[in-house]
Amino acid sequence: MPPDPRPYIEGVRSGDRRMLAKTITLIESRLLSHQDLTQSVIDGLLPFTGHAIRLGITGVPGVGKSTFIESLGLHLVEQGRRVAVLAVDPSSARSGGSIMGDKTRMEKLAVHEHAFIRPSPAGRTLGGVSRKTRESMLVCEAGGFDVIIVETVGVGQSEYAVASMVDFFLVLMLAGAGDELQGIKRGLLEMADAVAINKADGDNIDAAERAKKAYENAMHLMTPVHPCWTPPILTCSALAHKGIDDVWQMILRHREMLTSRGELNLKRQEQAISWMHQLLEEGLKKWFYEKAEVRERLKDVSRHIETGKTHPTAAVRQILDLLPQSDPKSNPKSLQPK
Amino acid sequence: MPPDPRPYIEGVRSGDRRMLAKTITLIESRLLSHQDLTQSVIDGLLPFTGHAIRLGITGVPGVGKSTFIESLGLHLVEQGRRVAVLAVDPSSARSGGSIMGDKTRMEKLAVHEHAFIRPSPAGRTLGGVSRKTRESMLVCEAGGFDVIIVETVGVGQSEYAVASMVDFFLVLMLAGAGDELQGIKRGLLEMADAVAINKADGDNIDAAERAKKAYENAMHLMTPVHPCWTPPILTCSALAHKGIDDVWQMILRHREMLTSRGELNLKRQEQAISWMHQLLEEGLKKWFYEKAEVRERLKDVSRHIETGKTHPTAAVRQILDLLPQSDPKSNPKSLQPK
Questions:
Q1: Which residues pair with B274 in a beta bridge?
Q2: Do A57 and A159 sit in the same domain of this protein?
Q3: Testing the interface with B: which of A88, A162, A284 to mutate, by most B Cβ within 10 A?
Q4: How many CB pairs below 8 Å do chains A and B form together?
Q5: Mean pLDDT for chain A overall
Q6: Domain coverage including residue A327
Q7: Which of B11, B31, B48 is the last residue of a domain?
Q8: Number of domains present in the structure of chain B
Q9: Residue contact A61–B180, C-beta within 8 A
Q10: What is the H or E stretch that residue B315 is in?
Q11: Do B260 and B282 form a contact (C-beta atoms < 8 A)?
């Protein structure tokens, strides 16, 4: 008997946080034996997804992401919303442990009954988007959370991944960062639906206002993501809880704009298509590497590479020869049945 | 007649810098019509590769990577070596242009007759390793360069990619960076063959020495990459050209250690295997998406996703059904010939 997906589906739907965490752990599992169950659980939860505000937040280390997310999260739970945070756990890539502990992140939000924080190990990505962030986001939605926040580290492929799964992509910046950052910032800015300049407090207020002007000018040099939305530049202080509601109201305005034009659905459809391609490529690789012929020839060519008898480029051609060609006669050694 | 690879191969081999640049551009091309030519050029150059010192250099923005690489590069060309740098061009991901211009990077090294600098657009990776960095490195080797330096930005998947194609991976650090960086740093440190604390000059010398001690302690907490090599922590000032030769001598010591134990070859064999897997997956995707049946069904399910008739997870299963299964009878709709 295959394992029963219902306890997971019902547990998540009933708002059971332990089952929510357990379901995400199941989805993140790399065990082959978990794949069918995972699939059934996701299929069972998908009809209950789609209603939440999906928010990506990024910024380079030191910009105050955790403090900002905690401040925004507390603001939202105080309004009665339910907030899930899929957060970067800046832990070791090789050993899985964190050198600093980092247990104090978002400690007020973490204990709130309407909040759920899931630290994803930064793992091999270093950027903080786990392989299964999209699925985890959907599980949280099915679990009744209204706002899902996905955090990334701000320099890396993760930003593209997150921007392609959220409704709103917020970039946190600091006033007066080094010039060398500019190029990277531009890449980020081009994806941004808004920029919030954090740490606009104390002696830093004037610098933050100047940075705001500079970013506003920079934004005019770029092609906007949306023709009707020039990404606003805001200042805030997560530490002093200042400007946080302004950021939130702007996110709601953006949503209103998208919804009234019927574009939220369009955006999500496009995202669903790109998700499909990602899943497709994973499935394709699995199919390929499970073939006995592929595994065998892979062993042979690996030995030939090690002994210097062949080069990787030639080896690859030998293995790809195993794939069935359009005209079967041209390739008798293919995977096709004899 | 297929285009002739010989002008490229001979041009690169003769040290013609224009042909070197042109060959890398060819390799980076995404045009299908360039693929066979690219393949022939690489096959033709591979026998002339393998002799160079392959050096990866990383560090977060602001650490002084360009200045360090210029300082090291000048030091090496003055010794009569030929140095190629595959450098990050921190340009826009969406538009391809750089907001800052950034024309002044490594300007002394760039004009030296024994140096070759190839800026790779950071492109969609944001981290600076282009899809074809490995191939570009091999082209430079075949062109007679003794030292190939590959630069990355220091937070992202690029570091794993680069560490998996070089002989020595150097991490640049600064004294006194924020605590939030620690987690990311650990991920980097675990891949490092050495750490150089840059900007150890002026008022910063004491702080750099303290950082050196701290990193030395941190290194003891980690599993070393190599049992016979505890990654040294050095201080240097690229701006003042101080400590640069120490870094270089250490790189030579590491190489001597690897070579005397026969491990340089082992390391490169492993890297060749991982390169093969990467090429294999690219080839597999190409094969799959070129199938007429796949393209057709992809069109259908995409429409169903857009109209909400199906979910991406179910759509993927429908498309993967097209792949030939081990038992053909179980899957009559497969790609197998009827």
A1: none
A2: yes
A3: A284
A4: 238
A5: 84
A6: 291-335
A7: B48
A8: 3
A9: yes
A10: helix B312-320
A11: no
